Hints:
Layout: E1 3-8, E2 11-17, H1 25-33, E3 42-47, E4 50-56, E5 61-62, H2 63-66, H3 74-93, E6 101-102, E7 109-110, E8 117-118, E9 120-121, H4 133-142, H5 149-163, H6 179-186, H7 201-216, H8 221-245, H9 256-289, H10 304-316, E10 334-335, E11 347-348, E12 362-364, E13 370-372, E14 378-381, E15 389-390, E16 399-406, E17 409-414, E18 421-423, E19 426-427, E20 433-436, E21 441-444, E22 447-452
Parallel strand pairs: 14-15
Antiparallel strand pairs: 1-2, 2-4, 3-4, 5-7, 6-9, 7-8, 10-11, 12-13, 12-22, 14-16, 16-17, 17-20, 18-19, 18-21, 21-22
Helix pairs in contact: 3-5, 4-5, 5-6, 7-9, 8-9
Amino acid sequence: MNITFKRSGMKNYLVIEKAETGNADFREKMIIRNRIPYLARMTPQSVDGEISYYYDIQGNVRLDALFECRAMTYREIAGFLRALAAFFPELERYMLSPEEVLFAPSCIWVTPDTLEPEFIYVPGAIPDSTFSINELAVFLTEHVDGGDREAAALAYGYLEYVENGYLIPNTDMTEKPEKTEVDRMIRSDIPTGNDIPDIDLKRMEESTVEEMRAVFEPRHPKLKRVYAALGTVAALSVTYVLLVLYPEWFPFVLNDDEYMILGVAIAIVFAIMLIAVMCFYNKTRSEAALPATDTVAPEPGFDPDSYRFSTVSKAYDAPADRPSALSEPYDTKEKISLPDDGRTVLLRGPRFSFADKPACPVLEQEGGSRIMLDHFPFVVGKMKNRVDEVINDEGISRIHAMLKEQDGRYFISDLNSLNGTGLNGRLLEVNETAEITNGDTVSFANTSYVFRCA
Length: 454
C-alpha cells in the first residue's frame, strides 16, 4: 500500500491510491456522505486518470511520532482504549469492515491535547498484518510508562485480549483495577502490605531521643565548669555596660583609662571562655557519636576481593539479550549492599572519559537563542507538555518537528505542521524526513536556526 503526503493550501493530506476492486463503491459513499466518529474525513480525487483517497489530517499527529520520545500513562491508554471501544460499534452501524482500517500506529492520527484518535479507512483494502490491530496492541505495551503499574497492567491486558481473538476492548479494562489485581497481572512476587514488618514507632522515638541525648548532653565535668565561668563573664559584661551607661548607680567612680582597661579585660576573658566551650562541645559530641567498635579478625580463608566481585556478578549480571546496566549512559551511581564491616563498597556507575565525549548538537539562531539537543528524539513545538523545546511563534504548530540521531547521523522530520519545516530553503513535504549536517539551516515556520554538531 503506497502512502504519501501532500500539502494543499492550508490543509495537509494523507494520500492512498485506490485499490482495483469493484465492491468498494458503497463504502466510499458511506464515508464521504457521513461524518463517522473516529474516522478521518476522506475525499476521492483523480490524479492523472487514477483515483486516490485524500484524508484530512490537518492539526493531528501520528500516534507513533507523538510517543516516540515519551511514555504513555494510564490515563492516556485508558482514554485511547475507550475511544477504540466506541469506534467499532460505529463501523458496524455504517456497515464498514474493521479489516479495511489501518490500525498501525504510523497510520493513527491523534489530536495533541485530547489524544482523540482518527483512523484511516481504505475501502477495498486487502488485509495486511502490518496494519492489523495486533501491531497497535504491541505498540501500547512497548511505549507504556514502566513506572505506572496500572498503565502497564492495562496495556498488557489488552495485548492478551487481542491475542485471544478479540478486537473491541472490554470497557471494564479501562476502570482502574484494585491494587491486588495490578500485582497479579504485572508481578506475582511483589510483597503486599501484610508482608511488611511492623515498626514500633514508640520504641523508635525513644531510641532516637537516646541517640540525640548522647550527642548533645554535656557529660564532661570540665565542660560544666567552663559553662559556669562563661556565665560569670557574661554577668560581668552586663555590669560593665551598666557602669558605663549609669555610673550614678554605683558607689565608686572610674576614670577613662580604667574604663578602657576593664572593658578590654572582660572582652578577652569572654572570648577565651567562648572558645573553650566550643572546643569541649565538639569533643564531647564526637566521642558520643562514634560508638566503640571491636576489631574482629577475618575468618580463615576469607578473601575480601573475591567476595566483593562474586557479590557484584550475582546482583548485576544482565541477560544475554539485554544490554548490560553498567553501559547505560546515565550519571547515576548505586551502592551495592555489602556487610557493614567497614570496607569500602563498590560503586556502580559509568567511568568518566571527558576526552571521548562528543559535543552536544545545537540549533543556533543568529544573534538569538540556542536550543541544546541533549537527547534524541527531540521534539519542538509550542505545546509545553508534549514537546522538548517550546518555540514561541504564532506560526509554530503545537507539535511541529522532530530531530533524531542514528549511527552518528542526524535527521529532521516534519510532524504534519501547518506552516511546514524547511531545510536549506526547501520546504519539506508533510511528514517528510531528511538528513541534516553541520551548518545546515533549519526553519520552523518563520523561525530559522543553524544546526551545529561536532
